[in-house]
Design goal:
- This protein is an alpha/beta fold.
- It has three domains: 93 residues, Translation factors (Elongation Factor Tu (Ef-tu), domain 3, Beta Barrel), CATH 2.40.30.10; 112 residues, Rossmann fold (3-Layer(aba) Sandwich), CATH 3.40.50; 84 residues, Beta-grasp domain (Ubiquitin-like (UB roll)), CATH 3.10.20.
- The strands form four sheets. Strands 4-3-6-1-2-5 form a six-stranded antiparallel β-sheet, covered by helices on one side. A five-stranded parallel β-sheet has the order 9-8-7-10-11, with helices on both faces. A five-stranded mixed β-sheet has the order 13-12-18-14-16.
- Strand 7, helix 2 and strand 8 form a beta-alpha-beta unit.
- The longest helix is centred in the middle third of the chain and has 14 residues.
- The structure holds FE2/S2 (inorganic) cluster.
Length: 322
């Protein structure tokens, strides 16, 4: 089961970062105490009002233990999380958060890092840039947003660029004379052995996957903020819960997560889209129908864990460590 250790933090500062993007600095309640350490690319889950659980990438330097910093885009399609963060969460508020988890891990042996960010997708890459600086790994950033007013965290980027002399290419595709990023060209220019990391909207990541198809997969990394595939809701399979010593039948049209909730279980979940990893469960028997964006292809092939919010079963029965 996913680590669901939680703790309370206080919102120390709230900053306006860009059109529709706010930054939140979260600190421990006890002065001078430390937060759990994290690695670049990690995220935390925030417990919001009304039982909402939402995941946000940590954007600050992983060497820092006195605070976690996140950026939140006020998504027009918000299911409540980003709207709450923008309209109701205030400086001084106390929040319950999970320990950091990382599904977007950096390869620290890389001789060169190329980062590609679309909009709020800059957030996990900021912690990776900080880590690259600490490791002395040269890096380059391609950051695309609709306009300069929609691009958050330009100040911190300017600081990192000033410290390292790294190449930071900004691209505002809705400003006069600008166009979409030429991903094919910029992937072709990745230095030998370099690793590439991308985070942003679905369309950008789908183009990125095409553009990087000829690179060795171990050098290509990405994190999705939205589902790429529909959830598995064909149903008609049995689920045995080993620890609870119970079984249930998932009906057509029902997700595995909804089936678990329907029998009174309270599995942790957040995004319901297969992108945050909160609902991960160990699979003891059977073949999942993986629909998530968290597990790698190798992890999916191993069939020993799954995201129950979006994935279903290819076999007639699944046995889960629940
Ligand atoms: S709830 Fe986010 S991956 Fe399942």
């Amino acid at each position: 089961m996913t680590d669901i250790t939680t703790q309370q933090v206080r919102v120390r500062t709230t900053t306006y970062e860009a059109n529709s993007i706010l930054g939140f600095e979260l600190v421990p309640l006890a002065p001078a105490s430390a937060l759990p350490t994290f690695t670049a690319g990690s995220h935390i889950d925030l417990q919001l009002s009304g039982g909402l659980l939402r995941s946000y990438s940590l954007l600050n330097d992983p060497q820092e233990t006195h605070r976690y910093c996140i950026g939140v885009n006020n998504d027009a399609k918000s299911r409540g999380g980003s709207r709450f963060m923008h309209e109701q969460l205030r400086t001084g508020a106390v929040l319950t958060i999970s320990a950091p988890r990382n599904h977007f891990v950096m390869d620290e042996t890389s001789p060169f890092n190329v980062f590609i960010a679309g909009g709020i997708g800059i957030t996990p890459l900021l912690s990776m840039i900080a880590r690259s600086q600490a490791l002395g790994t040269p890096w380059r950033l391609h950051y695309t947003a609709r306009t300069r007013q929609h691009a958050g965290f330009l100040g911190v980027l300017q600081r990192y660029q000033g410290e390292s002399g790294a190449d930071v290419q900004l691209n505002f595709d809705q400003e006069p004379g600008q166009k979409m990023l030429d991903l094919k060209a910029l992937i072709a220019a990745v230095p030998t052995g370099g690793h590439v990391y991308a985070c942003g909207p679905l369309a950008l990541l789908e183009s990125y996957e095409h553009a990087t198809a000829s690179l060795p997969p171990q050098r290509v990394h990405r994190e999705y903020f939205a589902a790429k595939q529909a959830s598995a809701t064909d149903g008609s399979y049995t689920v045995e819960l080993m620890r609870a010593n119970r079984s249930l039948q998932i009906a057509p049209g029902q997700s595995l997560l909804d089936g678990l909730i329907a029998i009174g279980l309270e599995p942790p979940f957040s995004c319901r889209q297969g992108i945050c990893g909160t609902c991960e469960v160990k699979v003891l028997e059977g073949t999942p129908d993986h629909r998530d964006m968290v597990l790698t292809e190798a992890e999916k092939t191993a069939n020993n864990r799954m995201m129950v919010c979006c994935s279903g079963a290819k076999s007639a029965k699944l046995v889960l460590d629940l």
